[in-house]
Each structure stands twice: as C-alpha cells, then as structure tokens.
Amino acid sequence: MAAQILEVVPLGRRVGHSGMVQPMANDRSMERLERLRETPLYKVSPSGIDWNKSPDRPKIANAHTLLGWTKHDAPIRKAFQFFGLDESDPRHWRVLITYLAMGFFPNPKKDGKKNLKTFLADAELLKRVNQKRDDIFERDKRRATDTELLKAIIKEHSADYDIGELKNLRKKLNAARKT
Description:
Number of helices: 8
Order of helices and strands: EHEHHHHHHH
Radius of gyration: 20 Å
Low-confidence stretches: 1-25
Shape: globular
Distance between the termini: 42 Å
Largest sheet: 2 strands, antiparallel
C-alpha cells in the first residue's frame, strides 16, 4: 500500500478568471497569474519523494491528469478545447502545458518580440498540420510532405490563408516548430 504522496486540497477563496486568454493589447493574463501565485487555488504539499525513481509515478500521474467536473476543471477543459487537444491523452497534457508556458513565459532570447497573438497563430498552424497529417495517414496509410499538408490547409482554410502564401507559410511552420 502506497502512502499518500501528494495532497491537493482546494482552498476556500476562489480567484476570478475570464476564461479563455484573448490576445489583446490590454491583456491582463500576467496579472491573473500573479493573483494565482499570491492566492493559489490549491495547497500542494511537497512529498519528499524522488519522482524519477518512484514506481508509483505512473499511477499517481494518471490519477492527477484525469479531469472531473469541478469549477476548477472547467478552465482546463477550455484550454484543451481551444488547442484542439484530447484531455484523456497524457501526451496532450505536456503539449498543453508547453503551449501555455510559452504563451505566458516566452524565452526572451528567442521570442523577445513574439506576442501572444503570434504564439496562438503558430499553435493553430501546428494543430492544423498535425490534424491534416493524421487524416492523410489514416486515409492513405502514408506520410504526407509539409508542402502537401500546407497546400491542403490553404485549400480548407482559404479564409485564413492564400495560395500565394505557401512559401511564407512554410517559413512560419518551421519557426513554429522551433518554439
């Protein structure tokens, strides 16, 4: 029987939030993060366990990445939906954390001028490329080239992209993959 390793207890005071992060000039997302840091929603007790060596790590990780239907799970569900990710896929949790961390805490050496709007556009392009790659693989049982994927995306999303934009879109895709 494993001892209780991590205690996550909802605290009494709820910090307000506006739901989805909107890429606006007057974005207050960092202020919300500061409020959450100062008045956290959860008390997380240190465990004193070396998680890299713990045989219980997969079981505990699985239990803590399952979403329930509490008020604190709703924003997490919105984030998964926004990025088109599956909350039941453990790999998508890492993707979501990476997207949010990069959106809120960009690497100043690489992303100094990249704003949230650009980050979200890159994330949307990556999501579309990955979805199209999966669709083509399921349908044709083959791997599609980036050019083929981008042409299909331009065709499907003609309101967002222009066919003359293929070369520029390829550059954006390569840049998005590096972040």
